[in-house]
Protein: Immunity protein Imm1
Amino acid sequence: MVALDIWYDQTPKDDEGNVVIRVNTAAELDELIDRIIAETADNVAPPMIQVALSGVKRSPALEVGLGKEKGFIGYTSRTEGGWTVGDGDPDALVDYIYMGNHSEVPASAEVPISTVRRGLHEFLVAGTRPSVVESDALS
Structure:
């Protein structure tokens, strides 16, 4: 298992002003996902988080949308990238909010939130592209 650094909001998490949230266990990850979904339930658009391996330079990274029922994962590493693939319209865009900034993703990237959660757990265990993300090899 690896440790994850997660960026969710701009609220400092320590006396030095760091905004990263460190997650070391599956229980901590589930608690954070549940908290984020609960805190943003009434927002105009669901939140996005960014996730990287703690202490790893040039870490693979995830962009993750956390809606009440649906979300997405985008994966980027030095050698590949990819997205979750759902049944939404590939020409339609869905709104998400990352640290107060508006973002859009293709509706076709949205999958059930249980799939997003599973992908995050896989990343916590292995630190590699989650199986729920289809590769679009960058090489």
